[in-house]
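WARN retry 2 of 3 for item q-0093 after timeout on previous attempt; input resubmitted unchanged.
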Amino acid sequence: MNSSTTAMRTGFSRGLIELRQAFAGFEMINQLLWPVATLTAIFFLRDREFQDTGFKLGTLAMPSVLGMFIALGMILVIQYLTVEREDGTLLRAKSLPHGIRGYFLGKLVTTSGSVLVYLVILLVPGAFIVDGLKLGAVSSWLTLAWVLALGLVATQSIGAVFGALVSNPRAAGVISVPIMGLIGISGVFYPITSMPDWLQWVAQVFPVYWLGLGMRSALLPESMVKVEIDQSWRHLETLGVLTAWAMLGLILAPIVLRRMAQRQSGSRVAEYREQALQRVG
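OK item q-0093 returned
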């Protein structure tokens, strides 16, 4: 077995270990916070009607928030990279053959696994909270599968790019603000067609809107397409935009990660720790 294969297997195993740790003990409470808060919001929206369409906001929002949680994987990757660059984890990975590649695979496993758990937490009780979800058709699950796969690759690879570029956890927090703002204008909790045209165009440039649209196309009945742009699920456009973002991330992420790894050294880690102590102080 060559060193590359060994590094990849090690990264995959490490990702599974970190995933189990993320949902064990007290950490489980932190992991449940956002899904439970989101389900609470959907509960209060479940009987509200969108304009005069007869469609319930809770039903419209349920698939959209699944797309939102896929997109939140971007923030998780950014946080992982910035924190573990400071604590020396990346430096240790750099010292191994193909260690950075294995490290990145491990982060993808941990983050993707976390996102999948979030989706289950949301979808299982959500199916009882709101009415009208289309859960029995094979085509629905096939659509959900390809949207999920492309969304995980697109958001996490772009998250790796941002995580490699920001200098510290505080900067990572600053980047999270525009990401949350983007989620806010992407039609997650309220249909995007109710927003100004210029906001609709901005939202359609980024993957968050298309993740929500793809999930709605998979889980909502055909009649609800009336509240979408052009009254269409736009599967080809969804496939094209998510694929473009996934390819962009896969091209850029290895480049910036290699450059980040080249800058890692024992003195840099010591500098990071000193800066962290100053922030705490």
